[in-house]
Write a structure and sequence with these properties.
Elements (H helix, E strand, L loop, with lengths): L7 H11 L11 E2 L3 E3 L5 E3 L7 E3 L2 H9 L6 E4 L21 H6 L4 E4 L1 H6 L1 H9 L3 E4 L5 H15 L2 H23 L6 E5 L6 E3 L4 H8 L3 E2 L5 E2 L5 E3 L2 H6 L6 E6 L7 H5 L8 H4 L3 E5 L10 H12 L13 H5 L9
Parallel strand pairs: 4-5, 4-6, 6-7, 8-10, 8-13, 13-14
Antiparallel strand pairs: 1-2, 2-3, 9-12, 11-12
Length: 333
């Protein structure tokens, strides 16, 4: 689709979102000529790429693989399943003794802030033994782009990181242009944690995925809990919008494992039109809440739920969905 065929508001939105030079920096994250600043505010010198990396978060591992740094990864965290080759890597955990880490001879250990805060002793001992430790956890899409660039800097693959950002932006622009012309947008409540009646903060990646797919977030006024991507909402507010709700969407993963029966039998949920009409859908949290390229799969899966006709690949003359929205079940290569 050419730029001239896009609605004016869509072009303005894309310019505001992507910016003109990728210069926006997230608070706490920074990319410098010879250093990076991580999500905890730690500054780490990067004069040369790190060659022996232990990754203790599945998203870090997945992104390193996408950047072409697979041979530099010498350890991964437990329960990782993507890419499939991850199963051949030695497994490490923040519960391990220091000696297990030292035996792997890493020059970099990648973690998340929750590990940095919860296992400060281990992190301190790793650093005391000359191992760089970098804590990364982007909250928004803008932070995700900076995060990818930081990973590219750490593993010496800056060009690959820029290509990853550009490809993602191209896909989002394609999908946004395709959904912009939809006259009747689907109104969606996106569940994050069922038993606590929590949704997502408006700037969360999951909401970005929903809105890119053309959905309207019914909980747009939700306020983040303690600066996280999760927001309290409450049953009363959910039920107050019951008749407006076209789709009830829930992420599924370790922190939220609802079933169709759980949602349909929730007291009061008979007041929700989407529930009465069996418009309840689930999506893997790894596809909407993890900062990886596979978020495009999540966007496309949501798109197929909301607008199956518009997201049929064979009806896309431009071929953009063919490039960016693989068939159901197919993963990003």
């Amino acid at each position: 689709m050419t730029g001239s065929s896009q609605p004016a508001w869509a072009i303005v939105w894309l310019c505001l979102f992507f910016g003109t030079g990728g210069e926006t920096q997230a608070v706490g994250l920074a990319l410098e000529a010879d250093a990076i600043v991580d999500s905890m505010g730690h500054r780490v010198e990067v004069s040369t790429p790190f060659l022996r990396i232990i990754s203790l978060y599945g998203a870090h591992t997945e992104n390193l693989f996408a950047l072409g740094a697979w041979n530099q990864v010498v350890g991964v965290s437990r329960h990782e399943d993507w890419p499939p080759e991850v199963r051949s890597k030695p497994v490490h955990s923040y519960h391990d003794d220091l000696e297990r880490f030292l035996a792997a001879c890493p020059d970099l250990v990648l973690i998340r802030p929750m590990i940095d805060r919860g296992y400060a002793s281990l992190v301190g001992r790793l650093r005391a033994n000359g191992i760089s430790v970098v804590s990364l956890q982007p909250r928004s899409i803008a932070e995700m782009f900076l995060y990818w660039r930081i990973l590219g800097k750490l593993c010496g693959r800056a060009a690959a990181a820029e290509a990853m950002v550009a490809t993602f932006q191209e896909a989002v622009a394609c999908i946004a242009a395709r959904t912009a012309a939809i006259a009747k947008k689907q109104r969606v409540y996106f569940e994050a944690i069922h038993n606590r009646m929590r949704t997502f903060a408006p700037d969360a990646m999951a909401i970005f995925a929903l809105e890119t797919a053309g959905g309207i977030n019914l909980a747009a006024e939700a306020i983040s809990r303690r600066g996280t991507t999760i927001a309290d909402y409450g049953k009363e507010r959910i039920l107050s919008q019951g008749e407006e709700m076209d789709v009830y969407l829930a992420q599924v993963g370790p922190m939220n494992q609802p079933t169709l029966e759980t949602i349909k039998t929730e007291p009061g949920y008979e007041l929700i039109r989407a529930v009465r009409e069996d418009r309840i859908f689930f999506i893997d949290e790894k596809l909407v809440s993890r900062p990886t390229r596979r978020m495009l799969l999540g966007i496309c899966q949501i798109g197929r739920i909301l607008y199956p006709e518009q997201f049929m690949i064979e009806k896309t003359p431009s071929g953009c969905l063919l490039r960016h929205c693989p068939s159901e079940g197919k993963q990003m290569e």
